[in-house]
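Lab notebook, bench 4. Still working through the backlog of constructs that have no structural model yet. Next entry is a single chain of 241 residues. Request: give me the C-alpha cells for it.
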Amino acid sequence: MVVSHSRPLARAAVALATELLPHQPVRIEIAAGTYENSLGTDAVAVAEAISAADTGDGVLVLMDLGSAVLSAETALELLESPVRVRLCAAPFVEGLIAALATAGGGADLERVAREAERALEAKYAQLGDSGSRPASGAEGVATPASATPSTQTARTVAAFEVTDPHGLHARPAAELIAALRDLDVDIELRNATTGTGPVPADSLTRLLTLGVSPGHHLEVSALGPDATAAIDRVRTAVTGN
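Model written out:
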C-alpha cells in the first residue's frame, strides 16, 4: 500500500505502476491526504488501508515524505488485528513498480521489500559516473549471480539481437518475468554488447541495470529441466520471433 501527503500523487503513482504492469494479482490500497482532502497524512486512514490490503501474505508500505513515515509507524499501533507489515524505505515511484512486479511473481514479503529498496539501481547504472551514489556507499549496480564451475558447464547458453523497440525497459522486463514464472529453471541474462551482468531473470530491478536497448545482443544462460523453454520465451519476449 502507498502512503502519501497528496491523494492525486498517490493515485497517479498507482496508475503508472498498474499501466506499466497490468494484470498483476496484487492488491494495492492508498492512504493519502487528510479527511478534508488537503495535503497531509492520517494514521487512522493508514491503519484502515493496511487492513484492507492484507490478504494473509503481509503488507508492504511505501511512503513519500517524513510525516508519512510517522503516520505509518503510528498506524501499526492502531491495527485491530495482527498483520505482518513491512515499512519500506524504497523510493516512492520506482519502489512501487519494483514491488508490484516482484509481488506479482509470487515472491514473499521480504523479497518484495528487498527488490523495492534496490529500485534505484537501474537509474544509477544508466547515469553512470554522472549520477550521484547513495551516501551509504551502495554501488547501484547489481552483483552478478554466481555459478560454480560444475553447474556452469551444464548451463544452456544462447544469444540473440534485441529487436523490441523498447529494449528491455520496465514493461517488457516485467512481461518477461511473468513469462518465465511457471518454469523450473535458473536463468541469467547478460548484455553482451556492453558486458553488463549476468543478473537473475526473476528480478525487475536487476534486469533494468542491464540497460538493454534495441540492437543490443542479449546472452541467456539457463539451467534446469525447462532451460530450453525458458530460452525460447526470452527470445520471443525481446525479438517477437
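Notes after review: The domain at 149-239 is CATH 3.30.1340.10 (Histidine-containing Protein; Chain: A;). Strands lie at 2-4, 30-32, 59-63, 85-88, 156-161, 186-191, 196-200, 217-223. Flag for follow-up if needed.
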